[in-house]
């Protein structure tokens, strides 16, 4: 089967966003849409001749078709080898792991993360580079430029490959190796996590429920939790990947993982509840009767990571995205290690991880990870939690409460105003920026402004500057409000308001979150004039 060149005309909407090209399925179903984008990615891998590429996705609708197309295009473009997960599956963190382990030149990951799937749902294609992390802005800009200039794509036409049998086949001059999507990831987890301690924990009657949300982590969780640790059958809920995620929204939070959340707050709660998203990079942790906010979970992991073999030597440093609560900073201070504050978006951790400045990092948006891969890793977070519970012998809820008793508690909530008018959102942010200089020292409600700025990030490694990453106002009373516009929304604009307040008095650690934060919420609403400018008296989502 020889390679052929097929003439094509560019699409003008193939600009990758935060996590690659993400569009509705029918957009990807247009003639040559996938072919164009894949060829554009490949054209931006100049030294690809004779190299290995990794390929897989979260199993959503179109996954198999796009895997087949991508293999045929890769075969016509000089790669020696493609490693593809069986069934076309690879979770995002597992793809990152496989790229690094096999010295691949990069990977093409098919996913729209936590967005719904199915014929009317979303699909996505993203490119990760040789370090296993999402392509940096320079690369995605080059890909976009290429999509607008393409005149042809190259392909080896032929019958579809069998993706369901492990082993090697060839298309043209290229080898296609269908690999077990779990094996390399499992081997890496064995190096980092105390599997024996966790196996003993389950052997002693420990019970958990892990909701794979009918998405990609099902096979990983089945293999590790039930297969290796011997957790009871039924530990993994919704463990079979479905093309439409069973009609659900595979985002691990109390709203979309509602059944698990309710179970954990009920009398029948097992010892731990956890969930992961469509492509396996996000996580949710729920202790019996107690939801663990992602910001608290990150701080707790940092405080206990040394209990896991992979982190026994301690952490070089830690990082959190700016809107993530400052709970992590308190742990870093007590450990005597640096804490970095980055803009929202996992890619900003890449340089810090590559340079060895940090070991652990995370975001309020349910992402936690470490230097083991270059993506956030949902199941890894769950395994570290299990490792901590196994070694300390403490119930999960006590781990959280003990953490608050030691470090104090950063009460935290996020108010989202979805699908507001984009112009109004811009006016609101501009209005805030105009007020910043005059704010320090002023009294708003019961709070006194200590500092106010628009977050500007200078990358400590390459000294690149990223401006306007969110307006933050901190108060003398150890409270903080952050305003930013979502970078992932698809309709209109989404305003996110992150509200937090620190309490350390022993009798103020278990108060209702809304009650503690009410005065800060009022100040946040008034300062930005949210109701008047957006026409919304209430947020659309409160988490
Ligand atoms: C994606 C990225 C995360 C980021 C999140 C922010 O999930 O992978 O790193 O935190 O988007 O989304 P937002 O809608 O707040 O811009
Ligand atoms: Zn995801």
UniProtKB/TrEMBL annotation:
EC assignment: 5.4.2.2
GO MF: phosphoglucomutase activity
Domain Alpha-D-phosphohexomutase alpha/beta/alpha: from-to ranges: 14-153, 184-286, 295-407
Alphabetic keyword roster: Isomerase, Magnesium, Metal-binding, Phosphoprotein
Top-level taxon of the source organism: Bacteria
Region annotation Disordered: where it falls in the sequence: 1-20
Pfam family, one: PGM1_C_vert_fung
Cofactor: Mg(2+)
Reactions mediated catalytically: alpha-D-glucose 1-phosphate = alpha-D-glucose 6-phosphate
Entries under Gene3D superfamilies matching the protein: Alpha-D-Glucose-1,6-Bisphosphate, subunit A, domain 3, Alpha-D-phosphohexomutase, C-terminal domain
UniProt keyword DNA-binding present: no
Family, similarity comment: Belongs to the phosphohexose mutase family.
Protein name: phosphoglucomutase (alpha-D-glucose-1,6-bisphosphate-dependent)
């Amino acid at each position: 089967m020889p390679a052929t060149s097929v003439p094509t005309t560019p699409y003008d909407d193939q600009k990758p966003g935060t996590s690659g090209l993400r569009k509705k399925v029918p957009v990807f179903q247009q003639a040559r849409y996938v072919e164009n984008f894949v060829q554009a990615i490949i054209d931006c891998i100049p030294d690809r001749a004779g190299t290995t590429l990794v390929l897989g996705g979260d199993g959503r609708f179109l996954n198999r078709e796009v895997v087949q197309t991508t293999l045929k295009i890769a075969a016509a473009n000089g790669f020696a080898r493609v490693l593809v997960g069986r069934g076309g599956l690879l979770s995002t963190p597992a793809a990152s792991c496989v790229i690094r382990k096999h010295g691949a030149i990069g990977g093409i990951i098919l996913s729209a993360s936590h967005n719904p799937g199915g014929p009317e749902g979303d699909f996505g294609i993203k490119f990760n580079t040789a370090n296993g992390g999402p392509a940096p802005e320079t690369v995605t800009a080059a890909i976009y430029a290429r999509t607008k200039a393409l005149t042809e794509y190259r392909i080896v036409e032929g019958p579809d490959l069998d993706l369901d049998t492990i082993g090697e086949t060839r298309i043209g001059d290229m080898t296609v190796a269908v690999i077990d999507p779990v094996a390399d990831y499992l081997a890496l987890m064995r190096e980092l996590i105390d599997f024996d301690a966790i196996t003993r924990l389950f052997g002693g009657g420990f019970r958990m429920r892990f909701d794979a949300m009918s998405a990609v982590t099902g096979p990983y969780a089945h293999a590790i939790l039930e297969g290796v640790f011997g957790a009871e059958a039924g530990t993994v809920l919704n463990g079979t990947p479905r093309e439409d995620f069973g009609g659900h929204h595979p985002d691990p939070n109390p709203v979309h993982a509602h059944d698990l959340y309710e179970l954990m707050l009920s009398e029948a709660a097992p010892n731990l509840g956890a969930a992961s998203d469509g492509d396996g990079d996000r996580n949710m942790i729920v202790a019996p009767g107690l939801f663990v906010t992602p910001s608290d979970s990150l701080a707790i992991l940092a405080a206990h990571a040394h209990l896991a073999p992979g982190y026994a030597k301690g952490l070089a440093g830690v990082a959190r995205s700016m809107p993530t609560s400052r709970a992590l900073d308190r742990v870093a201070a007590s450990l005597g290690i640096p804490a970095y504050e980055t803009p929202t978006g996992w890619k900003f951790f890449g340089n810090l991880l590559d340079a060895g400045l940090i070991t652990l990092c995370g975001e309020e948006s349910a992402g936690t990870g470490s230097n083991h891969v270059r993506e956030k890793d949902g199941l890894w977070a769950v395994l570290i939690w299990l490792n901590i519970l196994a070694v300390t012998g403490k119930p999960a809820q006590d781990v959280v409460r003990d953490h608050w008793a030691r470090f104090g508690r950063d009460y935290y909530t996020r108010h989202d105003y979805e699908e507001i008018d984009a112009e109004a959102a811009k006016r609101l942010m501009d209005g805030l920026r105009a007020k910043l200089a005059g704010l320090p020292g002023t009294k708003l409600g019961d709070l006194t402004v200590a500092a106010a700025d628009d977050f500007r990030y200078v990358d400590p490694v390459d000294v690149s500057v990223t401006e306007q990453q969110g307006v933050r106002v901190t108060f003398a009373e150890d409270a903080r409000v952050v305003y930013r516009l979502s970078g992932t929304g698809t309709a209109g604009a989404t305003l996110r308001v992150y509200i937090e307040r620190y309490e350390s008095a022993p009798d103020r650690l278990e108060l209702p979150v809304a009650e503690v934060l009410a005065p800060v919420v009022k100040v946040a609403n008034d300062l930005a004039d949210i109701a008047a400018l957006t026409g919304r008296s209430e947020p659309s989502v409160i988490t």
